[in-house]
């Protein structure tokens, strides 16, 4: 039932999706949908939570925390873009449909985003401490970098999913060139390489 709901919500949006359409696609009766989830709002919230958990797990599982910092970023970005490409309806639910559906849905996505930002913040802080030997990095700066990185990755996934010719590896490499190499190096022709 959730698979059908994610597909319909992802393709049509929260407001345009109908419970009849979801029930038909799931191969169940509409009363059965309401038996499990009392309303369209509860069903959409369940979809957001499921897709959020899957995305978070994909990113966490994709990163080897014992790898070098650039490798961790590469692995995390590759896992993120692979997941969003393989689950375009789930990404649409999280990235565009939930944000346009109203406050309760925006808050649900915010919980997922906060968890990903916290994970990225911890990785950046650990990498910076290792690189500079400074245990007292400015937490605000590290959190800001994580926010910027996550926001840029979200925007790039939106673009990549709207242009199916962009592979997950290409999207991850674009982010690496932007985030790791930096715009200055990129403009000078120096790019990050997966080695």
TrEMBL record:
<dbReference type="InterPro" id="IPR054129">
    <property type="entry name" value="DesT_TetR_C"/>
</dbReference>
<dbReference type="Pfam" id="PF00440">
    <property type="entry name" value="TetR_N"/>
</dbReference>
<protein>
    <submittedName>
        <fullName>Helix-turn-helix domain-containing protein</fullName>
    </submittedName>
</protein>
<dbReference type="GO" id="GO:0045892">
    <property type="term" value="P:negative regulation of DNA-templated transcription"/>
</dbReference>
<keyword id="KW-0238">DNA-binding</keyword>
<dbReference type="InterPro" id="IPR001647">
    <property type="entry name" value="HTH_TetR"/>
</dbReference>
<keyword id="KW-0805">Transcription regulation</keyword>
<dbReference type="GO" id="GO:0000976">
    <property type="term" value="F:transcription cis-regulatory region binding"/>
</dbReference>
<keyword id="KW-0804">Transcription</keyword>
<dbReference type="InterPro" id="IPR009057">
    <property type="entry name" value="Homeodomain-like_sf"/>
</dbReference>
<dbReference type="InterPro" id="IPR050109">
    <property type="entry name" value="HTH-type_TetR-like_transc_reg"/>
</dbReference>
<feature type="domain" description="HTH tetR-type">
    <location>
        <begin position="1"/>
        <end position="55"/>
    </location>
</feature>
<dbReference type="Pfam" id="PF21943">
    <property type="entry name" value="TetR_C_46"/>
</dbReference>
<dbReference type="GO" id="GO:0003700">
    <property type="term" value="F:DNA-binding transcription factor activity"/>
</dbReference>
<dbReference type="InterPro" id="IPR036271">
    <property type="entry name" value="Tet_transcr_reg_TetR-rel_C_sf"/>
</dbReference>
<feature type="DNA-binding region" description="H-T-H motif">
    <location>
        <begin position="18"/>
        <end position="37"/>
    </location>
</feature>
